[in-house]
Amino acid sequence: MTHSAASPLPSQVKKPQSRSERSARKLRASKAAQCAVQAENAQQTQDADAKNVKQNNAFADKKNIMWVLLSGAMALTFVVMLFLPDTGMGGGLVSTYSAMLWCGFFGAALWRYRATSGWAGFAYGSVVGLVIQFISQII
After folding, report:
1. Does residue 54 have a pLDDT over 60?
2. Residue 107's pLDDT band (boundaries 50, 70, 90)?
3. What pLDDT is attached to residue 8?
4. Which of 67, 76, 77, 129 could form a Cys-Cys staple with 103, CB 3.0–4.6 A?
5. So what's the pLDDT on residue 128?
6. How many CB atoms lie within 10 A of CB 64?
7. What pTM was estimated for this model as a whole?
8. N- to C-terminal Cα distance for the chain?
9. Using the 8-state DSSP alphabet, how is residue 20 labeled?
10. What segment(s) does the record annotate as region Disordered (predicted)?
């Protein structure tokens, strides 16, 4: 009888592993853990990117202050040019339209930023631009 009661079964016998086999097994386990962490980070990044894409759409975002600042700067540029001599904006129909247009854009952006109608803001801004143009002709 080759198997006695004291000897373990062949399936329970652990083979001795060499150092290279142990290090290879540890390396595989660490790579598997890294891949799992990277997959989790990639999923979190995709979720965050999906939220940011929806939030960072500058054209659809009514609360984006940059449109108010840019249109205000352009309106201010044309209004200042109305009052400066020899800038080419002092008289004529183009000066009236430019002041009305840019003040209207500024009014629309400001009204949209305040969560009201952009069309009403454009109308009010255009009227202000027209009044400023008339005042520049008087002065």
Report:
1. no
2. very high
3. 60
4. 129
5. 93
6. 16
7. 0.54
8. 123
9. H
10. 1-25
